[in-house]
Specification:
Layout lengths: L3 H13 L2 H8 L3 H15 L15 H28 L4 E7 L5 H14 L3 E7 L5 H6 L5 E4 L8 E15 L20 E4 L8 H10 L5 E4 L3 H9 L4 E5 H7 L6 E4 L5 E10 L6 H13 L6
Parallel strand pairs: 1-2, 1-3, 5-6, 5-7
Antiparallel strand pairs: 3-9, 4-7, 4-8, 4-9
């Protein structure tokens, strides 16, 4: 069977013009190189070089093998280099699934710096609301999941990024804006403006209203954070957003912010990845950059 060694021998002889110079290039003896060629000829049952020709001249069969060598070897060598760089952590793939709309407020700035440091890492983002993100991670369909809901899975690690607090946000003149303590009952007559995701992925329901058995008067789903803030400022309802969203919006709005309950609604954001990939340098760099973006606070 023809192997890469045979192809490299023919290419070297063609490029160097003689067996002696080709042997030097390949770091073998001239005898060993000649033996390789004769072995391939015996395997094929065809002569690759015209006998007693000076300089060496390929037969039709030899020209066909050389053509294949010149076509295939660059691709194979490029593949070997790519795999070597991947093994060394210099390149790779990071397909990210996000389980929260608001994550874009900090993720995009973090990724901008990441791309400049790791230009050979392929990056893509999927909003993990229409599929189960952790099973997709386990199957290799994505490489990183941003989530606030860690689960027990031996093949998945959850690296804490930073803690955050879900805050009530209301217009300055809203009755809840001056209330010292926000209780679940305060939402019974309110329109709650949320992201358009199932309640099981909204902290205000899972950690505050649900346990108290309270249902808002209305729930209005809105896709964009900027539109949520605009509606709240216009008195169309109230919302509960992560503190990082409100810090980013503080320059442009005077909306009132209040903690929920006596303890506040505190959660931790995680980056989930496959356990076997914990040593990847670019993955560790992303996690460190995310923590640094939030002032290094990770619960």
């Amino acid at each position: 069977m023809i192997d890469l060694r045979h192809l490299r021998c023919l290419r070297a002889i063609h490029e160097k013009g003689s067996l002696a110079r080709a042997a030097d290039t390949l770091c073998v003896t001239q005898s060993a190189l000649s033996h390789q060629i004769k072995g391939l000829e015996a395997l094929l049952g065809l002569d690759l070089y015209m006998r007693n020709s000076r300089p060496l001249r390929l037969t039709a069969a030899g020209a066909k093998v050389l053509e294949a060598a010149q076509r295939l070897l660059p691709e194979i060598e490029a593949l070997e280099e790519d795999l070597t760089r991947m093994a060394g952590g210099q390149s790779g793939r990071m397909l990210i699934a996000i389980e929260c709309h608001a994550c874009f407020e900090w993720l995009l700035p973090v990724l901008e710096g990441f791309r400049s440091r790791w230009p050979e890492v392929e990056i893509d983002i999927r909003v993990g609301l229409s599929f189960e993100a952790i099973p997709a991670l386990q199957r290799g369909l994505v490489d990183l999941v941003i989530s606030s809901d860690p689960v027990e899975a031996g093949d998945v690690m959850f690296a804490p990024l930073f803690g955050y607090e879900g805050l009530l946000v209301a217009a300055p003149g809203h009755p809840l804006a001056t209330k010292p303590l926000i209780e679940p009952e305060d939402f019974r007559d309110q329109t709650l403006i949320t992201y358009p995701v199932e309640r099981g992925r909204l902290d205000v329901f899972t950690g505050f209203l649900g346990p108290a058995g309270v249902e808002p008067a209305d729930v209005r789903p809105v896709e964009l954070t900027a539109v949520i803030l605009l509606l709240v400022a216009s008195g169309k309802g109230v919302s509960v957003l992560p503190d990082w969203v409100l810090r980013a919006a503080a320059r442009d709005t005077n909306l009132a912010r209040r903690s929920l309950g006596t303890q506040g609604l505190h959660r931790t954001l995680f980056a989930a990845h496959r356990t076997e990939e914990a040593g990847r340098a670019y993955l560790a760099d992303f996690i460190a950059a995310a923590r640094e973006w939030n002032g290094g606070r990770a619960d």
